[in-house]
Specification:
This protein has 348 residues and is an alpha/beta fold. It is 39% helix and 20% strand. The strands form five sheets. It has a seven-stranded mixed beta sheet. Helix 1 runs antiparallel to helix 2. 48% of the residues are buried. The structure holds 5-S-methyl-1-O-phosphono-5-thio-D-ribulose (MRU).
Length: 348
């Protein structure tokens, strides 16, 4: 995607190849700051503290982080320790484990001196694959959007999305936002309702930033507004990304997704989940077994934004202790279809 007219991926190797360059997503949209990560520990911290985020992108950060561990020490012990350190950063998105396992299995048979270069090259290939997967998801989603728009051709297709499953959450294009970009580019009129996505506001800050940058008509709504809009017929479909889909089709995604799925079900609004195969966890039977990340209550109790002078300020929004589960599970029965790189699955 383009920033100020220049094409960028969300993650890329540094010029010397030894590190990676990512956007510090905590500062978007107020400041666009690229940072370089050059050690396993800095990658782990960037994932935990959510400089970088979104299931596919944190997987790529983890893959490069493991390559950096091997650049310091190519031993089996360093490989296993790096894998464990990076895996412990965030528990819910299965993509992180998927990428770390791939790198570990890829380099284990190699001589120690060759492991770091092989790991970096494999991580590069995972990034390229992520872009291809997202393009394919976009194409299948676009075909679906065309069908839905044909039912109401006189008005824009009104799409509601939650959290950020755009290019900032992946290497490029995004999952849930990929078909929206393609639809907009081919002239299909789309309008996006962007859930603010408390507590970290990935919708209001990141999805809105992406859509504005691409010129896609959108409006940010309070998380509580979606139900009313669905009742009013102002939502043609809901589309979200996901951090893990279990063997039975349950969908783990950003907290609040479940409530949107319930409202969509009650109002006959189709609810779609966009995902690559890297997000499927066949080893886990259902969403009940997925570890739900619990983050610090400060993310609920405090908000950061610029004052009128443009200075970033952090203010309290409650005087009480807060609880902060970061994900929820939407049962498969509430999902109309899964938009994957292979096509749309589960359509009636
Ligand atoms: O806590 P985050 O911001 O990493 O959560 C991200 C989400 O829940 C996304 O919707 C999900 O990872 C899909 S991203 C393609």
């Amino acid at each position: 995607m383009k920033l100020n007219g220049i094409p960028h991926r969300s993650i890329a190797r540094t010029a010397d190849g030894a590190g990676i360059r990512i956007l510090d997503q905590r500062r978007l949209p107020w400041e666009v700051v690229w940072v370089e990560l050059r050690s396993t520990e800095s990658c782990a911290a960037a994932i935990s503290e959510m400089w970088t985020r979104g299931a596919p992108l944190l997987a790529m950060t983890g893959a490069y982080g493991l390559a950096m561990a091997l650049a310091e020490d190519g031993s089996d012990a360093a490989l296993d320790a790096g894998h464990a350190r990076l895996l412990a950063t965030r528990p819910t998105a299965i993509n992180l484990r998927w990428a770390l396992d791939i790198i570990r299995e890829h380099v284990r048979p190699l001589p120690e001196r060759d492991r770091a270069a092989a790991a970096f090259a494999r991580a590069d290939a995972l990034c390229d694959e992520d872009v291809a997967l997202n393009r394919a998801i976009g194409a299948h989603g676009l075909a679906l959007f065309r069908e839905l728009h044909a039912k109401n051709p006189g008005r824009p297709l009104n799409i509601l999305t939650h959290c950020n499953a755009g290019w900032l959450a992946t290497v490029d294009y995004g999952t849930a936002l990929a078909p929206i970009y393609l639809a907009h580019d081919e002239g299909l009129p789309v309008h996006v309702w962007v859930d603010e996505t408390r507590p970290r506001n990935q919708g209001a800050l990141l999805t809105a930033f992406e859509l504005a940058g691409h010129g896609v008509p959108h409006r940010v709504i309070a998380d509580n507004a979606g139900g009313l809009l669905m009742r009013q017929g102002a939502v043609d479909l809901v589309i979200v990304g996901t951090d893990r889909v279990t063997a039975n089709g349950d969908v783990c995604n950003k907290i609040g997704t479940y409530l949107k799925a319930l409202a969509a079900h009650d109002n006959g609004v189709p609810f779609y989940v966009a995902l690559p195969y890297t997000t499927i966890d066949r080893a886990t039977a259902s969403g009940e077994q997925v570890p739900i990340e619990e983050r610090g209550g400060d993310e609920v109790a405090w908000l950061t934004g610029p004052d009128d002078a443009g200075t970033l300020r952090t203010v309290r929004v409650t005087a009480s202790p807060a609880h902060n589960p970061a994900f929820d599970v939407t049962p498969a029965r509430l999902v109309t279809g899964y938009i994957t790189e292979r096509g749309v699955l589960g359509q009636p």
